[in-house]
Design brief:
single chain; alpha+beta; two-stranded antiparallel ribbon; 6 strands; 38% helix; globular
Length: 94
């Protein structure tokens, strides 16, 4: 799916501006949660606390981060995904 198709899909299923939910799973090391949150902050340009929750696997090796930042438009959503792809230790995101 190209950028334009992704943007159209987002705009057909979400109202902007508003809250958008991101889920990121990764290795629990090297301040993973903070690096994920900083990726969103870098795009939205706000130093505020991003609403989020975490859940560790039973072994403690992996952690899931659900974050719900306020975004202005679909471009910001796509840009946050691009930043998240660059975070070391990310295993999966949606």
């Amino acid at each position: 799916m190209d950028h334009h198709q992704a943007q159209e899909l987002l705009e057909s299923t979400h109202d902007f501006p508003g809250i958008y939910m991101f889920k990121v799973v990764g290795w629990q090391r090297n301040d993973f949660v903070e690096r994920v949150l900083n990726s969103a902050r870098a795009v939205i340009g706000r130093a505020i606390e991003v609403q989020h929750s975490t859940r560790e696997t039973s072994s403690g090796r992996h952690i899931a981060v659900t974050m719900e930042p306020f975004v202005d438009n679909s471009d910001q959503v796509l840009e946050i995904y691009e930043h998240l792809k660059e975070v070391d230790d990310v295993i999966m995101l949606w």
